[in-house]
Amino acid sequence: MSRLATANDGPASRGSSVAASAGLGVLAAAIGYLASYVLIIDEAREAVGDGVADWKGVAWYFYNAHLVDIETSGEFGAWGGTDTANLIAESGSTSATLLYVLPPLVLFTIGAILAAQWHVNDIGGAVLAAAPVTIGYAVVLSIGAHVAESSSEGTFGPIEMSGSVAPELLPAILLAGILYPLVFATAGAVLASTLTGR
After folding, report:
1. Which pTM was predicted?
2. Where in the numbering of this chain does the DUF7978 domain appear (predicted)?
3. Separation in Å, CA 80 to CA 73, 75, 83, 185
């Protein structure tokens, strides 16, 4: 059974190490979202209007910060269409642009903390410590993509109308949920382990 050293130099089983890393993935997603909320709430309210909950508008910006577009679709009778939008790219404000840095920075920091906490001093150990962050992060961002959807339906005489706005699901899972933590949390752990290994 593989073991990593903990801060108390006691052994930690591989299973508990994976669970701890996955838990920090959940924490990283929460920290990233809350920091996004603080940075962009006023602009999000203005951009999405009164018909959408504030937390959903911020979530759309949070997904955009992971390079995931927001998909808008609508139907009016027999006609319908789909389009994508990136609220950060359309904004141009400094606080919105800062959001692009936020997820990598939070994940990098979480990876570095893991490596330092577990006294990892080689690249292989760093990868083993940080890669499971992906599990928690992917779960949160996958569920978030579903709950951040905003939809409406109505009728105009005999014609039915409907529309929805949500993060694109596949990029939300693959790019934001899996690739981001795999790259940035692991990079943080590798850098921390390299510095402590000297």
Report:
1. 0.85
2. 5-195
3. 7, 4, 10, 40
